[in-house]
């Protein structure tokens, strides 16, 4: 890493407009393209403070600051357009979380990197609507939260209540949501309203280690820990009434269920296995990167292809997982209200994935190209009329689900044409951490966090009270700042704001 | 033998006439005289009705009376002429009707009229008549269909409305069949491209809508198929004993 003082670093940064900054070549060595990041004034301060801290003498260890990570990604072979930091960007393993980068498939040197997808492969958000209103749910909020908690096991090491055999798992890995459909856990319309229709076709379970399968088998239908949650939310604000109406959201106060979860230990193991393989491939193919954590392999190499197939299997695992929790949430609601999920109109509005790499067609410098798009902590946000979004959203653009932090609000955005051009149809994914987990544990008391939630009238069920402070809103960037920046920059458009009334967490 | 000529004469069995059967020959000659040629008065036709060997002599005389040029030919040749004579008489009876049947006109008829005689009265309608056009316009007004300059396009639209909205099923359960759309300001919606011309952009927007409509039908069909298969395969299970809350 180049050692410069803070003021020298600033020479490589240039404001493009009110909501974006350019990272010029030379900020890190060997940059093939420029970097860019989207911020508003509040988020901008966080980014620059992080860089300044990293420039202080004696700062070693830990992750590199987000801006440096964005620049290191810009130095990877085969990258096109720009290395893009979304407003919620923060340091992660190799790639920053909230970093989007696309690689040209026709360039034999282009790479795929597990660090660009993240350990929780196909972590994502699913939103269900209901025809209930806040007044229907408030009186039974506690019972409903308990019922959800009883149906959906949470926490580290939790096990699901849907019986699975090893054979079932193999099929689920290959079929994704088609498996859930075949077994009758979900509705045909759920598949229609899911990114990739809930199934990556290139998934190959034979490329997944036995260890990953063993970890994954008991975990299907569980929420997990960390920032994952299931929330009962109510519509707090509608910004775009036509788009909201297309999603079946007509009025403020309407009740929704948001599920934020991923591929659990299965995806983590797939990523870990791949990193080992990639280190070998890097040596063999003499691939140089600025950061050891950016382990990668050529897309067309054996290791690259194996990873993409295993990653697709992990993505399918995550969709089956969210589908199982959809089934369980519907059951919990049906029992509480003595109505069928059908009568409660519990349809999936959409399901997005914010940790994934996908092959997509985009226009680069006026030419159509096939790219491998890495989105890590970044959500696909395709514009109206894009062929890969469901027919119901052809006029509005793809719904983008932004999960807030525990006790804050969440948003639904829609994709825009401008986003398609600037960020290859990508936008933010959530709040993004501001404090590290360790720092949160040091600075906050869990009793204070719980008291604050209670004051806000939010019911909470958690597996581990000790982990609550890691996920406290104070540990995160303000999700409203993040979403407003995306809206102002035009890379996606605000549609609905939701606020939680009950939270189930690991 | 003689199939075409006999058919032209409206003979009752032009396909099955057998020249080797004497009885059939006699019947044919008698039929030709009775129905078509009428050389003799009815009461003088008895010799042709003879059943014995005298018939041959009577037939020779009949041919002579008709001034047949075939004196020594075979029976087939004699019959050939006789039938041809009957056809010529038939033609001269109504020459005006037949003289228009030139090759040119015949080929035209073949194109315009389907060979198979249709029992569908609609096939015989004149789709271009002013009456027909007026009818469609009236129908369109009743059904609230915007008329198209080409009345056949209007008819197509009318037929679509009738099929989809006025079927027995739609009338019995209108809520199941008739889609209750929600309004959407598609005029303000992003088209995704600009052709630099207001009218063209409007047209493109309408094409987009039609495409989305088709796509919706396709997706609905897919969903229905999935649901049909689910009714065979689905068997969701849960077992709360397996559940375990983590740390």
From TrEMBL, chain A:
Binding site for Mn(2+) 2: 123, 260, 354
Catalytic activity line of the entry: a 3'-end 3'-phospho-ribonucleotide-RNA + a 5'-end dephospho-ribonucleoside-RNA + GTP = a ribonucleotidyl-ribonucleotide-RNA + GMP + diphosphate; a 3'-end 2',3'-cyclophospho-ribonucleotide-RNA + a 5'-end dephospho-ribonucleoside-RNA + GTP + H2O = a ribonucleotidyl-ribonucleotide-RNA + GMP + diphosphate + H(+)
PROSITE patterns, per database record: UPF0027
UniProt-recorded name of the protein: RNA-splicing ligase RtcB homolog
Pfam families the UniProt entry points to: RtcB (PF01139)
GO cellular component terms, A-Z: nucleus; tRNA-splicing ligase complex
Record flagged with keyword Zinc-finger: no
Binding site for Mn(2+) 1: 120, 123, 228
Note: Ligation probably proceeds through 3 nucleotidyl transfer steps, with 2',3'-cyclic phosphate termini being hydrolyzed to 3'-P termini in a step that precedes 3'-P activation with GMP. In the first nucleotidyl transfer step, RTCB reacts with GTP to form a covalent RTCB-histidine-GMP intermediate with release of PPi; in the second step, the GMP moiety is transferred to the RNA 3'-P; in the third step, the 5'-OH from the opposite RNA strand attacks the activated 3'-P to form a 3',5'-phosphodiester bond and release GMP.
Principal EC category: ligase
Enzyme Commission number(s): 6.5.1.8
PANTHER family: RNA-SPLICING LIGASE RTCB HOMOLOG
Cofactor: how and how many bound: Binds 2 manganese ions per subunit.
TrEMBL record, chain B:
Top-level taxon: Eukaryota
Entry protein name: RNA transcription, translation and transport factor protein
